[in-house]
Amino acid sequence: MNWKDRSNRYQVRRVGKTVRQEKPGLLFMAVARATHFTPAVRFLGSCYKQSVLAPQLSVGWRAISGGEYRRPGQTQDNTPIWKKFDFNKGVEGMRKHFTLLKNEFLGRWTGPEGKPLIEHILEQTRVIWEFRGPESLEQWTVSSDREIGGRSEAYLKLGRNNATCLMYGTLCSAPPRDGETRYSGYCTLRSKPPMGSFDSKKHHDWSSFNTLHLRIRGDGRPWMINVGAETYFSHQKDDMYSYFLYTRGGPYWQDVKIPFSKFFLSSRGRIQDDQHPLWLDKVNTIGITLGDKADGAFQLEIDFVAVCNDRAHTEEFAYEVYKRNPEV
Fold first, then answer.
1. By the 8 A CB rule, do 31 and 10 touch?
2. What's the sign of the alpha-carbon dihedral 31, 35, 39, 40?
3. Model pTM greater than 0.70?
4. What range(s) does the NADH:ubiquinone oxidoreductase intermediate-associated protein domain occupy (predicted)?
5. Kindly report the CA angle at 124 between 278 and 140, in degrees rounded to 5?
6. Which domains does the chain have, with CATH numbers?
7. N or C terminus: which one in the chain shows less Cβ crowding within 10 Å?
8. Rounded CA gap, 262 and 143, in Å?
9. pLDDT of residue 49
C-alpha cells in the first residue's frame, strides 16, 4: 500500500462520527509515519496538541478584559463590559481632559505656569495648597499603619468655617500580631501627584524658591515633613527628602519656614550616607508624618502650604557632600 492509499484510507475513516470523536489524531499519525516525523510534522502535531489543551488552560476573555481579582468561592460576574460603562461619566471625563489640554496649550503661550514672564520672575511667594472647600481635600490622601494590621487611625476633614484642613486620629505603636512586623505606629498625610490632561505626568517646579512655608496649629507633637521628587531609576522610588516639624500646643497659629537646603535624603526611613540637594523642578508630592511613639489622640490643623524666596538665605546645601574622584 503506497502513501496515497494509506492517506485516503485514513481520510475515509475520519468521515465516520465515532472515529472523529474517539481518534481525532489519526491523520497526523499517518502523515508522521509516512514522512518519518519530519520537523514540519512535529510542528503541526504540537499545534494540534495545543489546540486541544487550550480550552482547559486558557483564561476567559472576561477575566482578562475585566481586570478584577475573584476570590475562591466568589460568584463570577458575567455582566458584559459595555453594560458597566457609564456614558455620562465618560462624557464628563472627556470634557474635563480636553479642558485641561486647552488650558495647558494656552498656558504655554502665556508664560511659565500659565503666568506672564515678568510675573514669574518677580514672584516671591506662591501658595501651592490651601483649604477653602471640600474639593481641596480631594488633592490629599490620609493613611496609617491600620493598612498593614496596626491600630492607628487617621482622618481628614475641613476645619472651622471650612477654611482649614484638620487631620486628627489616634496613634498606637503596638505592632500587629503577624510574627514579622516589629515596629508600628504612624499616621501620614500626603498630597497626590499632579496630573495633566489625559492623566499625563506633571511636576511641581519650585526652582525659583528656596523655602517651604506652612501655617499650622498643632498639639505639641513633633512631625516629619517628606518631599518626594522624580528619580532616574526605579529602585530609587522610595527616596524621600525629610526634615522635622515641631508644633506648639495651644490655640495660636504658627508660621513655619524651612529652607529646602535643610532637607536630607532618606530611603525607607534610613538616612543615606551619600547626600545631594533636592531637585526643586521635579517635585511630585509632599507629606506630613507622625510617628513619635506617644500613643494617644492627636490633631494638626493646616491653613496653607506655600513656597517663598528668602533673599537672606544663601545656603545651597547644609550637609556634607562626598566628592567623586577628588583632585589629588
1. no
2. negative
3. no
4. 129-302
5. 55
6. 3-58 (no CATH), 70-122 (no CATH), 124-308 (2.60.120.430)
7. C
8. 26
9. 47
